[in-house]
Fold:
Amino acid sequence: MSKAKMFLIVVATTGGLALAALLGGAVVIYGGLYDVAATRQHWQITHSALEVAMRQSVRLRARHIEAPPLADERMALRGAACFRDKCVQCHGAPGVAQSDIGLGLQPQPGPLVDAKLHWQPRELYWVVRHGLKMTGMPAWEYRLADGEIWDVVAFMQRLPELSAPQYAQWQERASATAAVPACGRGQAVPAPVVTAEPARASASATAPAVAFAVNVERGRQALHQYACASCHSIPGVTGPAAYVGPPLDGFGKREIIAGVLPNSPDNLERWLVHTQSIKPGTAMPELGVAPRDARDMAAFLATLR
Structure:
């Protein structure tokens, strides 16, 4: 048999196998054969493969992160409060069960009491900051300050040594310590006075402005992290096919925001932060968008023309 004929046979066989795989995948997907119910467990081999892929992915991306000193007890106390408010619902704690949400997730969130034994601090920081796709683990980058994430990591360094009573004592100390603030960026920003003229919707009606370098790509990510694509179709932002809000394609060319504000970067930033104050009763809720995030989101939306 000639080499040319052998090559054609190999190409034809490979193409046939690829076509069969595509057809098989189409049958599984469009035939509804794969059971997506959270009451159905993954196969163990699927769970193990996903876990290995997740661990290797995190280690690769976290390798250049430098962890700060984590021995400061004040950091750990702040982290204990944050852990209680943001982590226990899904992961539990010594002597504390997960909430109904955590118990019902698939794949099930693992306990964090031994996370220090399996992950480097920089890796734990990366996971908390960026989250994990298809696991229910959220990215806290847009909800916790960077220092708060390291506080959580500092507390997790102590978790393997804590019994249930000791964990409860840590939480009592965290609750009783005035130096431990509320976890998250939940400081309310005064609502602005809204006028018909964008130039007159002055910054004097708001809290003192903080200068941020506008980052369009970060704005695209923020639109995803604030779940904007769950209601709006946004070019460049992945989301479901059910849209209860208007599509945002061409937003940069629009003259009016939500029928009430002239379209300008400042007004869009105000709208994203103070939605209900600007248009009471609108179906769009206030999502706790931080001013920097709002500025970046407005910059990205301005590119949609």
